[in-house]
Amino acid sequence: MKNIVLLDSQTLGECDLKVFEQFGNFTHYPTTNPQEILQRCQDAHIILTNKVILDADTLAKLPKLELICITATGTNNVDLEYAKQKGIAVKNVAGYSTNAVAQHTLMMALYFLGNLGYYDNYCKSGEWSRSAIFTHIKDPIRELDGLEWGIIGLGTIGQRVAHLAQSFGAKVSYHSTSGNNKNAQYPHKDLDSLLRTSDVISIHAPLNLQTNNLLNANNLTLLKDHTILLNVGRGGIVNEADIAHILESKPFYFGTDVLAKEPMESNHPLLNPKIAHKLLITPHYAWAYDKARTRLLEGVIKNIAEFVK
């Protein structure tokens, strides 16, 4: 009978965790801090984790561990090389959130294109009830049709976003951060050209040496007025201090579902009230729409079942 421990069940939201009991003695914890890992996992054969870090020092002190199931796609929270040396299998789940993240990306773009934050507040504040006419129009509100949509990172999610953007009539181009992704369906641009020409830019790249601090004070100034920049890739790709500073004087918009440090720090530069009307921030949940989490759990169950078999 396997001992199975889930270290951060709260990251999965509301879901039926009893499905893991079919594989053995299952225990789960809402959150786990670094000091609690060893005590909770000492007898574990299988560990499930989303963001709890399992480094080499920790893995060395878990003699019964056979399998690590990451309840996400990214594997940077596990020392993969050390796990391999010790014969510990590591499995993640890929592709489960493609539709969810793409939908979230489009939602953020449409929010800015329709200036929804302003109009929602206009009505709820009572301003509309005091109006002399039936409507209220404040620029800019724009149709997506005919706009240039630039994609940074044309992987599976980036391609899905490209398809959705095209269905609204947008003209799609992309930049490959690795330089290896060649897609004949869309024009490829160097990064500076993409920043200069795009009306909407969405980021779907991983965080690595090529993408860390990719957008910063040196190139964010290239954005056209009223450009919409969206980061649904990884925190750290956009320098948050730099973009917060530039937003104070330059008229463009920034939407992000990810930050370099999560949860968001209480003194984060993006919490500056002077730029609030140019921002849309969501708490890293683009991956977590209903069907996506179902697919994720199914993927984790499959990984455990194949390993046990």
From TrEMBL:
Transmembrane segments: none annotated. The keyword NAD applies. Belongs to the D-isomer specific 2-hydroxyacid dehydrogenase family. PANTHER family: D-ISOMER SPECIFIC 2-HYDROXYACID DEHYDROGENASE CATALYTIC DOMAIN-CONTAINING PROTEIN-RELATED, D-ISOMER SPECIFIC 2-HYDROXYACID DEHYDROGENASE FAMILY PROTEIN (AFU_ORTHOLOGUE AFUA_1G13630). The lineage of its organism: Bacteria, Pseudomonadati, Campylobacterota, Epsilonproteobacteria, Campylobacterales. Keywords: NAD, Oxidoreductase. Residues 11-308 form the D-isomer specific 2-hydroxyacid dehydrogenase catalytic domain. Residues 106-286 form the D-isomer specific 2-hydroxyacid dehydrogenase NAD-binding domain. This is D-2-hydroxyacid dehydrogenase. GO terms for molecular function: NAD binding; oxidoreductase activity, acting on the CH-OH group of donors, NAD or NADP as acceptor. Gene3D superfamilies: NAD(P)-binding Rossmann-like Domain (3.40.50.720). It holds the Pfam family 2-Hacid_dh_C.
